[in-house]
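fold description:
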Amino acid sequence: MEFQDYYKTLGVPRTATPAEIKKAFRKLARESHPDKHQGDKAAEARFKAVNEANAVLSDPAKREKYDRFGHDWEAYARAGAAAGNAGGGRVDPFGPNSPFARYAGSPGGAGGGAGSGGIRYEFRTSGNAGAFSDFFRMMFGDEGAAAGEPEVFSTSGDSIGDILAGMGYNGAGLGGTPHRATAARLAPVEATAVMTLEEAFHGSSRIVEVGGKRLEVKIPRGVDTGSRIKLSGKGPDGRDLVVITRMTPHKTFSRKGDDLEREVPVRLGEALLGGEIHVGTLKGRVLLKLPEGTQQGRKFRLKGQGMPKLRAEGAGDLYVRVRVVLPTNLSDEAKQAATPFLDLVDQPDPRA
């Protein structure tokens, strides 16, 4: 039964803070992960050792217990086993008359501390007997593994699965066995919701059928293509359900983030002399005042008339692009009337 110096394994001092332990674990787990060292047994062993060290040092209760016993763990194990044999079952090695009764309270033996009798350590292995050392399993219990029950990691703070998921790994547990909790986080069920621009503007809902059950998914205002709505634990086997929105093209508006753009045709007289025109928005119609001499392609900004911001206050803007429509099929009288007007207009050659 090999004793592992967890501080040495992670390369941190015994006074290391939780943040320093987490940082060291992330670095070493990334370096030794089996995905990077296919078939390398030594790398796999290092990876297991790093995970075991982190499982203890990142959990305050386990770290306290480990700090108290250290190399004395074998005596602790023998005391627990002997007491169990004498009493016909598992007993508390911290109980009365135990060699370790003085540890029942605080490290000084005052009593009533975190290590008092009857405490149950909730860390569990994946069921792979080689995943953790005999030292670890004797110190922190293997009731669940002995009973053959399916188990998951349940350390306090960031679990191993959380940290490895953050590093982009696929959630395989030690020895290649996926952990249920990690697999649930890394393999959500995804569904696509095709949305119109009007639905994204006003908000909508979709009915998604999962495992024979129909769920109503509320789509918030302001979603865009690629927006993700997560429903924790609503997928099969308790996995997360993620609805991904995809926008359909709109015949009038184009979208850039929270801003919208549209084209508005105007008559020659409106462009030359100016005036007020109605412009349709997703809210309704608004008045746009055109100045005299409005050029083809000029853009006007209507503040706050764009898309609502997703999960935030306010809205984007609407940009209106002018398209001047010239009259066609002029009559002879119209042509004759236009000639003196054009002679009066002092317009430089735009091609010069």
About this structure: The chain has twelve helices and eleven strands. The chain has three domains: 6-182, 188-247, 254-344. Confidence is low (pLDDT under 50) at residues 89-94, 99-130, 142-164, 166-184.
